[in-house]
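Dig into what follows:
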Amino acid sequence: MTAYAQVWDLDSLLPNPQSDEFRKAYDQFKRDLIGLADRSENLPAPDGNNRESVDQWVAFLSDFETVGMRASDFNAFLGCHAAAEVTNRVFQQWEAQLATLEPDRERISANVQFALQGVELRAFESFLKADKRLKELAFFLEESQQWARLRLPKDQELLAADLAVDGIHAWGRLYDRLSGSLKITVMEKGELVEKSPSQVQYDAADRSVRSNNFFAANKAWNRIGEACAESLNHIAGTRLTRYRRLGLEDHLVLPLAHNRMERATLETMWRVVTEKKSCLVKYLQAKAKLLGLKQLAWYDLQAPLPVGGGGGSQISYDKACDLIIKTFTDFSSDFGEFARLAIEKHWIEAENRAGKRQGGFCTGFPTNKESRIFMTYVGTSDNMSTLAHELGHAYHSYVLRDEPWVLQDYPMNLAETASTFAEAVLGDQQLSTAESDDKKLLLLDHMLSDAVSFMMNIHARFIFEDHFHRRRKESELSPEELSQLMVEAQREAYLNCLTDDGWNPGFWISKLHFYISGLPFYNFPYTFGYLLSLGIYSLAESFGAEFPARYRQFLMATGSRRAESAVSEAFGYHLGEPDFWEKSIGVVESRVEQFLTLADARGVA
């Protein structure tokens, strides 16, 4: 008997998608959405001197928020059901049906933006001051005006939205179905068994198990490689066509806009990462020696160290929950109380069973002011970190739950800051209370494995996507060419520190983030968030008891500020300069030194 449920509660949010009640709720939502889309066609010119214009905008924005919240609810709800049962055709059909409403949602956004597009600065400022509600939503309206500059002409925008349902988004859904139904045949207790990708472990103490699982997974993924290459080529091709029509500088303009960050910030971050991450090579070399190897292969990166009985040690779900609650509470009572709420109210789907989608996510239900977390918990320390990571996302939404809905929408890079910050809180507490050098070594290995993921793995993804988009301008790429690009990116990002045959050419097939059709370049926000969270957490001592409040202030600002402003206002650092990023990586360098010292004591560093 476990203390905490591992299956989430979805029934309190909306009726089951297989019920008549859900159909009725959906039909009403559809009518309201289409009605609002029709109203958006006749938005008056924003005029602060015309009370009728002001009142129409205020009323429209109120309904826009209400309908938008319900749209988020339906998207999240069906996404949860589909992730938990990937072979359920009813859920797949509902997802496809909901996708047909995207053009109407896009019509509303486009009409709002086009209505604001040509308003001169003084007239726009006068409009915002004409009503307290408009003033409250000023950031959203200003950003909408800026997004209008990245729009095609209106008729082309609406056509593109219609075509996207059976175009770019359909390719993304195809990948979800292919990957969700994939089975990997592995050897377990002398028998061949089929598992979903999320159930296959690559952190076994036995190297033969790790390598066999790795090659078995690659074999399975390669079976769908041709179809995935088609999907990836057409997702990128659609975007590049749009960028060309807009006359954009390159394929990074839109990702930067989505993340509310400056190009100089991204370039500075990657430059500092490139200059400083050689410290991680020292860690990987020492880890190889601890494992009795000359050099690591890809499938060794998550291998447990053979110290202190750590290889293969399990952490029960209950124990992980209790530790997270206590750790978050030690940071701030608000954070801890939230974690207990989410765990005890069945917001989390963690059960280890077949038929679930791979990976993990946190999604929000703004009408109920709740979140839901999806993952597969198999008892590893990585699983516990994932749980903390997703609870960090959920806490972020919880902090913003009473803000206007349009000011609850924070960009990916700042979302990943909150999640990786939660992991940092957990990791630091464990390290400070470790009872032995072996335990410290294991914890540092886990922390530095994360650093490798964010500073090398994610960097490889960025390099791959960057080069892929440049090549895709000229022609589609074959699976073989994509695999070659991937290995080249991995060699560059990992400073060529793995064995010659130890790379992962098919990583582009198995990594679902490349196929997310709604957001381009989904990966670099993870590195941004990781390094930002490390830098922010390192400021805790200088801010003292004031720090949790500063952190909460930062989270509140993420819905209504650009990334650079949110950080500078709360903590005083400018992200376009290298100082903050060097401070962040200084934390990683310190952990590497601690790891090397402990490894040296064992005669291997």
